[in-house]
C-alpha cells in the first residue's frame, strides 16, 4: 500500500503552496510537459482532449448564432499592424518578429499574430462592398504568440491556443448586440459546461482591449481567491474601419463605415478548471468536459470472470452514451484509484468477485468520494444520474465558494484590510477616474476586474477619493 500512496504524496497541498499545487497537478495529471522552446508548453493527450471538448462545445454554440469559421495567415506585415494607433501601442511590446525568409532578409519584417484584428480588417476592406455583404460573422481557431516574460502552463504562455471571433456590421446597435450576445455565450458555456460561475461586466477604460471602444468580460474566482479573466468581447465601433477603410454602399447609395467586434476564449480555461475544481488528490473534471467520464476498475482481476464482467459493464455504459474506459493494466487497484483521482475522471466503478456474486458494483464520485452500491442492471442509468448530479453540485460549490469570498468595502481602510487579508472579490464604489483606479492598484495591490451588469448602490461616494460615485466595481488580484 505504501507504493499506492506515492502519486498523491507527490503533490504539494494547496493550503501549503497553491502555486506549487497547481504546477504539481498539471504535471502529475499529465496535462502538459516542458519543451526546449522557452515559454511554451507541450499539451499532452490528457490536456489536449479537454481542449478538444471545449472547442467542440464552443464551436457548436457559436454556430447556433450564425458564426462561420475561416482561417487567416499567421504572419502580419509591420505596416498592417501600424494602421490602428492604440492597437499597435498595446501589442508592440510583446510581438515576435520574423525578419528573414530563408537566407534573405525580408524587405518588411512581419510579426507572428498576437491577435488578428488587423488581418481581418485588411480582408474585410477587400471583401465588403455593399450592405448585402453584411453582417460578417467569422471565427478562427488558431494559436497566437505573445512574448510574455513570465509564463505558467495554460495561464500564461508565449504561444497559446484560442478562438478569435471577428464580426462586421452595418450599424453600431447591431455591433453592440453581437458583443453582448457573445459574452452571454461565454458565460453560459462556463456555467453549463465547465461548472464555473462568472461575473459579467464591462472593463474600465484602463483595462479595456487596445483599440476597443468597450470591452466586456466574464470574471471567475479561483480557489485561492484570485480572479481569472475568462473570456472577453470587444466592441470596436468604427475605429478600425476608419483606419483600414472598410466601407460599404448602403441602400441609399452612400458610403458608410462598418462597425466591428471581436471576442476570444483560450486554453487558459483549462487552468481555470484546475484552480476552481481541483483538490489535494489532483484534478476534478466536471463530467460534461471530461474526456473520460467513467473509469471501470476491476478488483482481483486475475480471478475468473472479473475481467469479463468489467468488460460487460464498460460496454453497457458506452452503449448508454457515456465516455468510459476500463483500467485492465497490471497495477494494483489502489494505484489505479489514485491515478483516476489525479486525472480528475469524475466517476470510477469498482467491481470485484464479491460484487459480481451479489450482482452489483460500486460507483464512487471523484468530488465527494461518495460511494453508491448499485445493481449491475441499473448501472448505466445510475452512473448517468450521478454524473448529472455531480455537474450541478460542482457549479453550486464553486458559486458558494465565490460568494463566501466576495466582500463589500465601504471605507478605504476596510478596502485595504480586505485586500491584504481576505483573498477574493471586493465590491466597492468608484467615481470613474483612472487616478483612483491607479491609486488602488498602488496602495492595495488590486485591479478593477469589471463594472458588473448587476449593480448595487453600496454607498454614494468613491472608495478612494470620496467624490460622488454611481458605479459599483469588482476589484481583486488576478492571474
Ligand atoms: Zn474616485
UniProtKB/TrEMBL annotation:
Query: Which Gene Ontology molecular-function terms are recorded?
Result: ATP binding; catalytic activity, acting on a protein; proline-tRNA ligase activity; transferase activity
Might you report a single GO cellular component term?
Answer: cytoplasm
As for subcellular location, the record says: Cytoplasm
Aminoacyl-transfer RNA synthetases class-II family profile domain location is 45-286
- Please write the reaction equations for the catalytic activity of this protein: tRNA(Pro) + L-proline + ATP = L-prolyl-tRNA(Pro) + AMP + diphosphate
InterPro entries for the chain:
aa-tRNA-synt_IIb, aa-tRNA-synth_II, aa-tRNA-synth_II/BPL/LPL, Anticodon-bd, Anticodon-bd_dom_sf, Pro-tRNA-ligase_IIa, Pro-tRNA-ligase_IIa_arc-type, Pro-tRNA_ligase_II_C
Q: Which domain of life is it from?
A: Bacteria
- Which Pfam families did the record assign? HGTP_anticodon, ProRS-C_1, tRNA-synt_2b
An example GO BP is: prolyl-tRNA aminoacylation
Q: What is its EC number?
A: 6.1.1.15
| Principal cellular location given in the protein's record | cytoplasm
UniProt keywords (A-Z) are: Aminoacyl-tRNA synthetase, ATP-binding, Cytoplasm, Ligase, Nucleotide-binding, Protein biosynthesis
User: Domain remarks in the entry?
Assistant: Consists of three domains: the N-terminal catalytic domain, the anticodon-binding domain and the C-terminal extension.
Q: How does this chain assemble?
A: Homodimer.
**Protein family (similarity comment):** Belongs to the class-II aminoacyl-tRNA synthetase family. ProS type 3 subfamily.
Name the job this protein performs: Catalyzes the attachment of proline to tRNA(Pro) in a two-step reaction: proline is first activated by ATP to form Pro-AMP and then transferred to the acceptor end of tRNA(Pro).
**Protein name per its UniProtKB record:** Proline--tRNA ligase
Which source organism does the UniProt entry give? Marvinbryantia formatexigens DSM 14469
Question: Lineage, please?
Answer: Bacteria, Bacillati, Bacillota, Clostridia, Lachnospirales
Gene encoding it? proS
Amino acid at each position: 500500500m505504501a507504493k499506492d500512496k506515492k502519486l498523491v504524496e507527490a503533490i504539494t497541498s494547496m493550503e501549503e503552496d497553491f502555486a506549487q499545487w497547481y504546477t504539481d497537478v498539471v504535471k502529475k495529471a499529465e496535462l502538459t510537459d516542458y519543451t526546449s522552446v522557452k515559454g511554451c508548453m507541450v499539451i499532452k493527450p490528457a490536456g489536449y482532449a479537454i481542449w478538444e471538448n471545449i472547442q467542440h462545445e464552443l464551436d457548436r454554440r457559436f454556430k447556433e448564432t450564425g458564426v462561420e469559421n475561416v482561417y487567416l495567415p499567421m504572419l502580419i506585415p509591420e505596416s498592417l499592424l501600424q494602421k490602428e494607433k492604440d492597437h499597435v501601442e498595446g501589442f508592440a511590446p510583446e510581438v515576435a518578429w520574423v525578419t528573414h525568409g530563408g537566407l534573405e532578409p525580408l524587405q518588411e519584417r512581419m510579426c507572428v499574430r498576437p491577435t488578428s484584428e488587423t488581418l481581418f480588417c485588411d480582408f474585410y476592406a477587400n471583401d465588403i462592398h455593399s450592405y448585402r455583404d453584411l453582417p460578417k460573422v467569422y471565427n478562427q481557431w488558431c494559436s497566437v504568440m505573445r512574448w510574455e516574460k513570465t509564463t505558467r502552463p495554460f495561464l500564461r504562455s508565449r504561444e497559446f491556443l484560442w478562438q478569435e471571433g471577428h464580426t462586421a456590421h452595418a450599424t453600431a446597435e447591431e455591433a453592440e448586440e453581437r458583443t453582448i450576445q457573445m459574452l452571454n455565450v461565454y458565460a453560459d458555456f462556463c456555467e453549463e459546461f465547465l461548472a464555473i460561475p462568472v461575473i459579467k461586466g464591462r472593463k474600465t477604460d484602463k483595462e479595456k482591449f487596445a483599440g476597443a471602444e468597450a470591452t466586456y468580460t466574464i470574471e471567475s474566482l479561483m480557489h485561492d481567491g484570485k480572479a481569472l479573466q475568462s473570456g472577453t468581447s470587444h466592441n470596436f465601433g468604427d475605429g478600425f474601419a476608419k483606419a483600414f477603410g472598410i466601407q460599404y454602399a448602403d441602400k441609399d447609395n452612400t458610403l458608410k463605415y462598418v462597425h466591428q467586434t471581436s471576442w476570444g476564449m483560450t486554453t487558459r480555461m483549462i487552468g481555470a478548471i484546475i484552480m476552481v475544481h481541483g483538490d489535494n488528490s489532483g484534478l476534478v473534471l466536471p463530467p460534461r468536459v471530461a474526456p473520460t467520464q467513467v473509469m471501470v476498475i476491476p478488483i482481483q482481476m486475475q480471478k475468473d470472470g472479473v475481467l469479463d464482467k468489467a468488460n460487460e459493464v464498460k460496454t453497457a455504459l458506452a452503449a448508454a452514451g457515456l465516455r468510459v474506459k476500463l483500467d485492465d493494466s497490471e497495477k494494483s487497484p489502489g494505484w489505479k484509484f489514485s491515478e483516476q483521482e489525479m486525472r480528475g475522471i469524475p466517476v470510477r466503478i469498482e467491481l470485484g468477485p464479491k460484487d459480481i456474486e451479489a450482482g452489483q458494483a460500486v460507483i464512487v464520485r471523484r468530488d465527494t468520494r461518495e460511494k453508491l452500491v448499485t445493481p449491475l442492471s441499473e448501472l448505466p442509468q445510475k452512473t448517468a444520474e450521478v454524473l448529472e448530479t455531480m455537474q450541478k453540485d460542482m457549479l453550486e460549490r464553486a458559486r458558494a465558494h465565490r460568494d463566501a469570498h466576495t466582500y463589500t468595502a465601504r471605507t478605504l481602510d476596510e478596502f485595504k484590510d480586505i485586500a491584504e487579508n481576505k483573498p477574493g472579490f471586493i465590491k466597492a464604489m468608484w467615481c470613474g477616474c483612472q487616478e483612483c483606479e491607479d491609486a488602488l492598484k498602488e496602495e492595495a495591490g488590486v485591479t478593477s476586474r469589471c463594472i458588473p451588469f448587476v449593480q448595487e448602490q453600496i454607498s454614494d461616494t468613491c472608495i478612494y477619493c470620496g467624490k460622488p460615485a454611481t458605479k459599483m466595481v469588482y476589484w481583486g488580484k488576478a492571474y
